[in-house]
């Protein structure tokens, strides 16, 4: 756990980074990319839903989205223009994903 992402050093740093900063961050970290909806990136306690598909070697990345996105996803029945457009998926790294999961997993 030595090579922590720079973005993990401060929560405020993770919340509200620009896409360019995220891409720079991804180049600087050994973590693999992960994909989340924009609400997880900027939210707190908005819910945390993860893909429960079996591991796919063609897409070996973790995906996560919030409860609102989950509702849209259920309405649409799949990821399509509507559900993906609502989610506004963005790329982060797996290290940041863990922190974002902790921040958004609603304590019900
Ligand atoms: Zn969302
Ligand atoms: Zn990161």
What does this structure look like?
It is a single chain. The chain is α+β, with helices and mostly antiparallel strands and about 110 residues long. The protein has a domain at about 30-50 and about 60-108. It is built from 6 helices and 4 strands. It has helices at about 10-15, 20-30, 40, 65-75, 80-85, 95-105, and strands at about 35, 50, 60-65, 90-95. Strands 2-3-1-4 form a 4-stranded mixed beta sheet. Helix 4 runs antiparallel to helix 5 (about 80-85). Mean pLDDT is about 80; it is low at about 5-15. The structure holds zinc ion (2 copies). One zinc ion binds next to strand 4 and helix 6. One zinc ion (ZN) binds near residues 5, 7, 93, 95 and 96.
Key features of this structure:
single chain, 108 residues, alpha+beta, four-stranded mixed β-sheet, 4 strands, 44% helix, binds zinc ion
How many β strands by DSSP?
Answer: 4
The total count of helices amounts to 6
What is the straight-line distance between the termini? Answer: 29 Å
Unreliable runs, pLDDT <50, ≥5 residues?
Answer: 6-15
Structural class: alpha+beta
What share of residues are in beta strands? 5-15%
Average pLDDT value? Answer: 82
The portion of residues assigned to helices is: 40-55%
Ligands in the model, by name, code or SMILES, are: zinc ion
Shape type: globular
SSE string, helices as H and strands as E:
HHEHEEHHEH
């Amino acid at each position: 756990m030595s090579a922590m992402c720079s973005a993990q050093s401060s929560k405020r740093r993770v919340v509200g980074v620009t896409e360019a900063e995220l891409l720079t961050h991804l180049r600087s970290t050994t973590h693999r990319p992960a994909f989340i909806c924009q609400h997880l990136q900027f939210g707190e306690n908005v819910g945390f839903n993860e893909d429960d598909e079996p591991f796919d070697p063609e897409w070996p990345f973790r995906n996560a989205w919030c409860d609102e996105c989950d509702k849209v996803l259920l309405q649409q029945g799949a990821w399509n223009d509507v559900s993906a457009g609502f989610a506004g998926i963005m790329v982060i790294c797996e290290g940041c994903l863990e922190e974002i999961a902790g921040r958004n997993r609603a304590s019900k």
